Amino acid sequence: MVAPASTQEVAGVVTVCARHGAGIVPQGGNTGLCGGAVPDLSGEQVLLSLSRMNRIRRVDPGNDSLVAEAGCILADVQAAAAEVDRCFPLSLAAEGSCQIGGNLSTNAGGLNVIRYGMARQQVLGLEVVLADGTVWEGLRELRKDTAGYDLKQVFIGSEGTLGIITAAALKLAPKPANPVTFLAAIRDAGDAVALLGRLRSVLPDRIDAFELISDRCFDLVARHLPDARRPFAERPGWAVLADAVEGTDEGRVEAVLASCFGDGLVVDAILAKNKAEAAGLWRLRHAIPEAERPAGYCLKHDIGVPVGRLARFLAEAKALVARLEPDARPIVFGHVGDGNLHYNVLQPAGDDGFRERGADLSRSLYDLVAKFEGTFSAEHGIGVTKKELLRTYRSEVELGLMRTLKTALDPDNRLNPGKVI
Amino acid sequence: MVAPASTQEVAGVVTVCARHGAGIVPQGGNTGLCGGAVPDLSGEQVLLSLSRMNRIRRVDPGNDSLVAEAGCILADVQAAAAEVDRCFPLSLAAEGSCQIGGNLSTNAGGLNVIRYGMARQQVLGLEVVLADGTVWEGLRELRKDTAGYDLKQVFIGSEGTLGIITAAALKLAPKPANPVTFLAAIRDAGDAVALLGRLRSVLPDRIDAFELISDRCFDLVARHLPDARRPFAERPGWAVLADAVEGTDEGRVEAVLASCFGDGLVVDAILAKNKAEAAGLWRLRHAIPEAERPAGYCLKHDIGVPVGRLARFLAEAKALVARLEPDARPIVFGHVGDGNLHYNVLQPAGDDGFRERGADLSRSLYDLVAKFEGTFSAEHGIGVTKKELLRTYRSEVELGLMRTLKTALDPDNRLNPGKVI
What is the DSSP string of A69-113? Predict the structure, then answer.
């Protein structure tokens, strides 16, 4: 492992590795879920940690931008934005340890995509060390620039296989006012999409987050967090946790919820009365991944389908799991406003054979996703663990284009070899 | 010229051209300003018009998306969105004749970038005919997808040199409520940035458009449109035309303007009282490019600088023009909220020698833009007319990367040869 402290040092490492034919695996906070930042078992790959490149190089509130080195922790980037009364809207569970370079090289998603877009959309410019050790200085801080191909787009989301991001110029957003947070109980997951439509008709783009949570998630969390309890007395089946922001007064949100309650679309609701109550509701959501762990083996799927087809997809997925693994327990939650769900399936209690049978269930679920023209990787990338899925579900033409890019930009296959493509 | 009516016909044309070694120039509405859609003078290039591929293939309001063929007029895409009570937010002067394929292949900008981003940000998926005639079917309609390299990003903004876009899946936005439109007179162009800051502190992201207009623009428009007149009795120097949207009541905008008036930041203001008044104000803005024409030779610069440096840039640019061409008349307008200005310079009355001297002035202005770390092409692309600027102002590493992409995706240089790079 090497841990260079500057762009020039990264370039130096890449040059030396090129000379000796060694592959390089760039690593940020190592929080990825698909093994994209982990060397193979050959013992011949150089692990390049960006952790020491952790300076915020400059902050320009007048331009609503800042320049951060790749090794900056995401939470530190958010804090640097907050210091000048702005917000860096990328937000995800690992924000306390993931690094911005990793976020960009995987095009991370998270909670606020519905309003602000993926990591890609937060980028104004990049500094990248290329496969031959040259440095591309593309740290422009412009909101509009059509001077030739937009090269940064090629490196964002390429998981370190086309170049090593060493710094990024990032867009800042105005700091949002305190949101109105609510948790609404619904009977059917498909109703979440209907509820989103109703909210949007009154508050067109005032929804910052819109998360679906299945009842079983609350069970797990209540068991995992000593002081947490199920939010609703009844077991309606599903809930939506949402933030609505500035220009939104509580009254308007309350009115929408009341009308949905009248129609039976919403069966119960909790409107947070203050920041602490809002944080309490969000804590239930954030704790889900952790609460899954002690419950047994959990088969995970980071899937996405077009939002309008989500209700039908969920119905068919439920039937599929019931047919193939009647005793398994789907733990479904995620960013329903973007069509992205973490469709996880927990093993039947005591049935450790599930782990082996899991591949079949996964494959059937991914086939279903494909039928709905969805994706088997909405926000977690490919890394190594999803390479086979990429080969299965994407066309030969598409794979060929990816190989063409890889060969063009890294002809000797030095950058994160064996990942993505 | 060929005008195929389907993707397969486009692929057929490309295959035949490849066999015969002919270059292909894709053309949409031919409204580009840099000659990107115009064949060279060799007589050996095939002009491929996308005009007959003008179907909206599907509209999915549940997913807030639609699929349009490349030859759809932008205004028709907007209309298809409006029919399902949504908005397609890309908006520019040529929207009545430019085509969506051209908008995407040039990554068009326009009036609403400040809120919605460039054309690139409106795209969910693409269908592209590649240099060898194969079709990449990438028309996914997903908001999140990290399954491998995001190939659409490579084709967007590449001006038809890497592939021919034949259809696009586009994001729709909620239909915004009627905006509050106002025209504010200011003394100094730099004050526009300060005014934007003040507005944003009260209405963080409620600004849909924020256009700077110099006094001289109003003179030209008043001369050009028989029924238009100068909006202000005084000649303050500059004005800002802005739209603020939903969640905004007039009262809040009025309060900001009143406080700015108190400080001397705003010297006069017109708040549109209804839709007709708002349209009247916007008509003044839209008429500027046309009003320039009869006034004489006009040297045009589509430039961008970081927003926070705009005030200083404008001061230095003014001094520069005054020094080099004291009698020339800067006609400055544009999307100041994005740091993008159309910094045009009209010939001194009766001085036709200006046309020849223009190149020197342009070069000096572009040097100034470079000093401010800006761009010589914020939203008009490269085409042929800006190729030399690209070579001058972008690094060898950057140009090398662009050539690498071009060679990888179009090894025989068949697609829009001689453009961009």
Answer: ETTSBHHHHHHHHHHTTEE-----TTTTT-BHHHHHHTT---TTH
